Amino acid sequence: GDLARAFASTAGVGRVVGCDFARHMLARAAARDRPWAAKVYWCEGDALRLPFASESHDVVACAFGVRNFQDLGAGLREMHRALRPGGRAVILEFTRPGITVLRVPYEFYLHRVMPWLATRISGDRTGAYRYLPSSVLSFEGPAELCQHLSRAGFARTVSRPLTFGIVRVYVASRE
To answer: CA 110, 114, 115, 120: dihedral to nearest 10 degrees?
Structure first.
């Protein structure tokens, strides 16, 4: 919901589609994002089989989700398929900081703070966020994710670290 709301609040943006496979997350986002109801349409769908026509979107975005794709290549190819020529895929994903001095505090944050914080923010008390450290540490590095995007058909990918390299933004273009 946060990403859909951010896009919907941007001047000049038309319709925004928020898509998730978890129905309860969609209901929560829809309830929380009522001010954007005219601009945001919520739908249930799987990232590996997006419920959209080919070449139907100008932007396809995913925040902190691609590392959870059951098949990374298939998910990225779906993002590419749904984009119009000239469209962009925007991906936010956790990474390891490249600055050596940040690694110890980052490991503490990753193992202790992030799961606790994610649990509080999401309201999910099932313990689902205990997987975060292992999923972040085992996920592809920036160079590898850029290669996956290229293999999925994207012509150009720009990758930039945010928050001292803890998060990275990838913008991949479809020609």
So the answer is: 170
pLDDT in tens, 6-57: 887 775 667 788 888 888 888 887 777 666 667 888 889 999 999 999 999 9
Closest CA to 65 of 55, 74, 75, 56: 75
Is 170 in contact with 91 (CB distance < 8 Å)? Answer: yes
- Using CA atoms, how far apart are residues 1 and 150, in angstroms rounded to an integer? 28
Q: Hey, which bits of the chain come out as E strands?
A: 16-20, 40-44, 57-63, 83-94, 156-162, 167-173
Task: Indicate if the pLDDT at residue 143 is higher than 60.
Answer: yes
Place of tokens 């829809």: 30
Domains, the chain, ordered by start: 2-94+138-173 (3.40.50.150), 96-137 (no CATH)
Q: What does the block give as tokens for 168? A: 């990275």
Which one-letter amino acid corresponds to residue 21?
A: F
Q: How far apart are CA 65 and CA 6, in angstroms?
A: 17
The helix/strand/coil state of 166 is: coil
